[in-house]
Amino acid sequence: MKTYLTKLVFILLAGTAMLLLPLHASAQPAPKQKIAVVVSTLNNPWFVVLGETAKARAIELGYEATIFDSQNDTAKEAANFENIIAGGYKAILFNPTDANGSVANVLKAKAAGIPVFCIDREINSTNAATCQMLSDSYSGCVKLGQFFVKTVGREGEYAELLGIVGDNNTWNRSKGFHSVVDRYPGLKMVAQQSAEFDRAKSLEVMESILQAHPNIKAVFCGNDAMAMGAYQALATAGKADQIKVFGFDGADDVVKLIGEGKIAATGMQFPKTMARQSAEFADEYIKGKHDFPQKVPVPVELVTKDNVSKYGDYGKK
Amino acid sequence: MRVLRWLIAAAIATGICWLFPPFHIVSLKTATAQKAAVTFNPAAFADTFWDKKLLLALPNAINAQTLLAAIQADPAAAKTNYSHSIGIGGSYCYFLSGTGLVTAVSDDEVSLALIPGSTNTEISLQASLIFGNALRDGTGLLNVNDYPDSQDFNAISEALNHLVETRVLPKLREQAKVGSKLSFSGCAEIDDESTDLKPLKVVPIQAEAK
Fold first, then answer.
1. Which residues in chain A (43-62) have CB-CB distances under 8 A to chain B?
2. B42-209: CATH number
3. According to DSSP H, which parts of chain A are helical?
4. Domain locations in chain B?
5. A298 vs B89, B158, B192: nearest CB
6. A298 vs B145: CB contact, 8 Å cut-off?
7. Contacts with A247 (C-beta within 8 Å, 6 or more apart), sequence order
8. pLDDT at A247
9. Which of A296, A301, A302 sits opposite B88 (nearest CB)?
10. How many CA atoms does the CB half-sphere of B146 hold within 13 Å?
11. What Rg value do the Cα atoms of chain A yield, rounded?
12. Is A277 on the interface with B (CB under 8 A)?
């Protein structure tokens, strides 16, 4: 009897242990795979939205996601990539700092077997990144240029604030705008200066342009942060009603000012669409799909007072 | 003896450099010519594309009346069935052809009514400066991924638009008279369906009085 009871207790204990083992295993799930989100700068709300949306979508898809800020510095970007490669990340969602300077970083990640999905900004290589999801800045600024001529007229002086000179977007935007405006010889660009996509710099640059060229009728800014800085300078100088400001990005504060009639227009890029899609592409890559188009253009839409009610929250309502 | 060793070493080094020159000296003129040879020439590309591909593709354009009826019935289905677009996003293009009655002529456009008996403008042929990507993206013949530099791809739009202005518009302006019939082929870019579908703003590739 005693032997029988001992055997019964042993069987019960063994059975309980077998039941508990899988429970113990499920209590400690395998660590999540990691996706890195590298953003050119977090000193601009538009890029914060881009980075945060990419991170949020990666988390939704079941990954651990971390944002790295390159602070518009290719050296910092390179250090971020070193850390990411050493850190065992499975994919990089990448908003480059410099079209040429960022190529080496992407190639390093590629050599380490980590796919890189560029968002918004282009790198000057078609065999480094797995895919580049690019805002069609040129075409967006063609539309802005057409609206500029319609609003400002075919004659008058204007100024242009450029972004970072090493960034392809700076020139795609400027060239798109000029492909239209330069067809009207009566429109004279009297100043063209870089404010590096930065609101504070734009404020300073606009103040000096106003002193040198008080008769300008409009200013075209390569992004909305610069449009906000330019508007601030104009408001301080009491010229906000006389000089029209055109931006590019579709930032919420500029969309709001378009609604109030204070800024003339912007080009709505779709940072959330691009960020989500790139996270989804990374997920597909990790799950085995390796065939992606090198470039996926994302059209830009013109936002003016007439259609501003359709836009907000960095996209279409 | 030491001098001889140096002379032999120098001779070997010279021989190696002669066999495997570490650099080449090229005249500035040659270098410029070589660079120009590899630089994308959008005007030449557009010229060839126009003659060898675009004109040959005109029979593939959707009949304008069919397209207008499809848009009238269901814009989303018409977009799915007949449009071309690149990338992701809201804008898209139609490649269409048809014949219509000229209802108005201005500096910027030639208005056409296509439905028999109608005087409503269903098509607006763009007749002034041409901007945008309607021709580049409208036919589906060009793929952004064939152009490593996106600025080259953008330059194609400018070059094609220039060809419209120089090859098509002079004849269009000459032939478009209110009350006359005009056949056309072209592409329309739709950014905002609330404004761009009625009328369809068509960048003409061909336009001829009937």
1. none
2. 2.40.50.420
3. 2-27, 45-60, 74-86, 103-111, 137-152, 168-181, 199-212, 224-236, 252-259, 271-286
4. 42-209
5. B89
6. no
7. A221, A223, A224, A226, A227, A228, A254, A263, A265, A266, A267
8. 98
9. A296
10. 8
11. 26
12. yes
In chain A, which residues have their Cβ closer than 8 Å to the Cβ of B158? Answer: 179
Nearest CA among B69, B156, B52, B50 for reference residue B115:
B69
How many residue contacts between A and B have a Cβ separation below 8 Å? 69
- Name every chain A residue with its beta carbon within 8 A of the beta carbon of B192: 301, 307
Q: Which residues pair with A94 in a beta bridge?
A: A38, A118
ipTM over 0.85: no
Per-residue pLDDT tens digits for A133-142 = 998 899 999 9
pTM over 0.90: no
Nearest C-alpha neighbor of A94 from the set A124, A48, A151, A133: A133
Give A255-294 pLDDT, tens digit per residue. Answer: 999 999 999 999 999 999 999 999 999 999 999 999 999 9
Query: According to the model, what pLDDT value does residue A166 have?
Result: 77
Higher pLDDT, A46 or A230: A230
Q: State what percent of residues in chain B have pLDDT above 90.
A: 66
Residue B104, pLDDT > 60, answer: yes
Residue type, B23: F
pLDDT for A1 beyond 60: no
Please report, in angstroms and rounded to a whole number, the separation of the first and last CA atoms in chain A. 78
3-state secondary structure of B52: helix
Q: Identify the residue among B79, B85, B86 best suited for mutation to test binding to A, counting A beta carbons within 10 A and taking the highest.
A: B86
**Residue A79 to residue A75: CA distance in whole angstroms:** 6
What b-and-e string marks burial along A8-35, b requiring 16 or more CB atoms within 10 Å of the CB?
eeeeeeeeeeeeeeeeeeeeeeeeebbb
At residue A39's C-alpha, the angle toward residues A38 and A45, to 5°, is 150
